[in-house]
Design a protein that fits this description.
2 domains, Aspartate Aminotransferase, domain 2, transferase, alpha/beta, four-stranded antiparallel sheet, binds pyridoxal-5'-phosphate
């Protein structure tokens, strides 16, 4: 970070604790400088313990974890994969790596995640068009908010479509008191630098199926057949996490509860201190019995109360050296996916048009929060 930036408030910077360096130090001391070693085993055990999943495979990115997850579910050339449209491009890129086509589904307004009504419409329409049944359902829990899992899992069950949960943003979130990432056949987390916990870059795949976990490990290590010479009968990948980075992950996992608590406090703080502004709406609501990790606090501008746009707010915050970001641009609007089929679309398009992510890093101080809130007030006051 450049020194003149000391004053800048970032959207979601890394927030390290006191133990990460000990694990890294030990790895170097013991010469476990490889994509295997005790930190990896320990990190995987920590993730299993926190999520209740029976198996975890640490990988070098969330994107790699999604890619392997799709392969484990049998996705290949010519297949169709149902996918949330309102998400980061990393959700859908692995569908393309696999030679499959994403079928984008709109959001519902309560959680901003996949709409069960459009999901059913999509499946029935694909079948009516004579397509092969969708091979998998890639469900995102955006900004840490649990999707309407009961409804979506019921539909997936009815049509016998396996679910891959993209919980990259949702480590520490729960639905029915159960951690996200453990509802589908496979769940995926990201430890990228901007996520609630970070290894600088990293990911993990969780599953309760021992065979799938073993297959993921095999594919992530170049698919080496059991032989002393290098023998291969499947295409593999080099997707394993470094034992050094897993050391950062072990230190970070000790802090998960604390980080979730802090992000939720930040969300509540913004809500309390900006509640009097009719131009702002705080959304979405957690479904009953569920808990979001509130990875990022998001707000919507209410056009009946202001003509100020999210981009104007963002630019105003920038003049105060505060980083804010638009919500994810729906994937069905991306040039990359202009030919992909889509169902619905207006809900996530509206969210994209009206929404903004506010700085939400767990190391933020009260003074930082006051600075952001003050700048937001100035921006929507310029009306
Ligand atoms: C960050 C993210 C990913 C990808 O994770 P990486 O570790 O950056 O590869 C996938 N999906 C969503 C929704 C994300 O936010």
């Amino acid at each position: 970070m450049r020194s003149q930036d000391h004053d800048r408030i970032f959207l979601s910077p890394p927030h390290l604790g006191r133990h990460e360096l000990n694990y890294v130090h030990k790895a170097i001391e013991d010469n476990w400088v490889a994509p295997t070693g005790p930190n990896i085993t320990g990190f995987e055990a920590d993730i299993c313990q926190h999520t209740g999943a029976s198996h975890c495979v640490a990988l070098n990115s969330g994107t790699a974890a999604i890619h392997l997850g799709l392969i484990l579910l049998g996705v290949g050339t010519g297949d169709e994969v149902l996918c949330s449209s309102f998400t980061f491009v990393a959700t859908a890129n692995p569908i393309v790596y696999s030679g499959a086509t994403p079928i984008f589904i709109d959001s519902e307004p309560q959680t901003w995640n996949m709409c069960p009504v459009h999901l059913r419409e999509a499946i029935e329409d694909r079948l009516r068009l004579g397509k092969k049944p969708p091979k998998a359902l890639l469900l995102v829990h955006l900004y840490g908010m649990p999707a309407q899992l009961r409804e979506i899992l019921a539909i997936a069950d009815e049509f016998n479509i396996p679910v891959l949960e993209d919980a990259a943003e949702a480590l520490g979130s729960c639905y029915d008191k159960r951690p996200l990432g453990t509802f589908g056949a496979v769940g995926v987390f990201s430890f990228n630098g901007n996520k609630i916990l970070t290894t600088s870059g990293g990911g993990a795949l969780v599953t309760n199926n021992a065979d799938l976990a073993q297959q993921a490990r095999f594919l992530a290590t170049q698919a080496k057949d059991p032989a002393p010479h290098y023998q291969h009968s499947a295409t593999g990948y080099n997707y394993r996490l470094s034992n050094i980075l897993a050391g950062i992950g072990r230190g970070q996992m000790e802090l998960l509860d604390d980080r979730v608590k802090k992000r939720r406090e930040i969300y509540a703080w913004y809500q309390r201190h900006l509640a009097d502004l009719p131009a702002l709406q705080f959304a979405p609501q957690e479904p009953a019995g569920s808990r979001s990790n509130r990875w990022l606090t998001t707000v919507l501008l209410n056009p009946t109360h202001t003509s100020v746009t999210p981009e104007q707010v963002r630019l105003h915050l920038e003049t105060r050296n505060i980083e804010a970001r638009p919500l994810w641009k729906p994937l069905h609007l991306q040039p990359l996916f202009q030919n992909a089929p889509q169902y619905g679309g207006s809900v996530c398009e509206d969210l994209f048009d009206r929404g903004l992510c506010l700085p939400s890093g767990s190391a933020m101080t009260d003074e930082d929060l006051r600075r952001v809130a003050g700048a937001v007030r100035e921006a929507v006051g310029i009306d």
